């Protein structure tokens, strides 16, 4: 089982976990259902206020300590296929106060246009 010292991870951190399921306690790969490899589900984990929030299918931990996350991961034949940490943020939208600077970021990859502060409404 993957071990993580969650105390060293700062608030605001986002992890993406690839999690699969096996039918037995054997090595990963039991739940293939006709595939050559098991299906991997992606879950996002956000640390905020010292607690973890999991986003994904099914019943997932909310406002949980890392111990609860580890227990959730060890249930129902789950195995961790991958863990990634979000290290870069692309601006999709930023509200600027009229006294603040003009937007100074490139157009986001998703195609959304940055909004001019003069067009912003509350």
Describe the structure.
The chain has 122 residues and is mainly beta. The chain folds into 2 domains: 6-85, no CATH class; 91-122, no CATH class. The chain contains 1 helix and 4 strands; from the N terminus they run E-E-E-H-E. Strands 3-2-1-4 form a 4-stranded antiparallel β-sheet, with helices on one face. It is globular. The mean pLDDT is 78.
Which parts are unreliable, with pLDDT below 50 for 5 consecutive residues or more? none
Percent helix range: under 10%
Classify the beta-strand content into a percent band. Answer: 15-25%
Report the principal-axis shape. globular
Rg to the nearest angstrom?
A: 19 Å
**Total number of distinct structural domains:** 2
The helix/strand class is mainly beta
Distance between the termini: 48 Å
> Could you state the order of secondary-structure elements as H and E?
EEEHE
> What is the number of E strands?
4
Compute the number of helices. Answer: 1
| Overall residue-averaged pLDDT value | 78
Widest sheet: strand ordering: 3-2-1-4
Task: Outline the biggest β-sheet.
Answer: 4 strands, antiparallel
């Amino acid at each position: 089982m993957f071990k993580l010292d969650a105390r060293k991870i700062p608030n605001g951190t986002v992890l993406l976990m690839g999690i699969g399921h096996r039918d037995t306690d054997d090595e990963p790969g039991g739940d293939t259902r006709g595939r050559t490899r098991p299906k991997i589900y992606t879950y996002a984990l956000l640390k905020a206020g010292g607690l973890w929030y999991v986003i994904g299918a099914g019943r997932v931990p909310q406002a949980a300590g890392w111990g609860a996350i580890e227990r959730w991961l060890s249930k129902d034949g789950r195995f961790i296929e991958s863990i990634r940490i979000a290290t870069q943020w692309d601006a999709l939208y930023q509200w600027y106060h009229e006294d603040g600077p003009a937007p100074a970021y490139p157009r986001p990859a998703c195609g959304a246009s940055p909004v001019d502060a003069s067009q912003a409404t509350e």
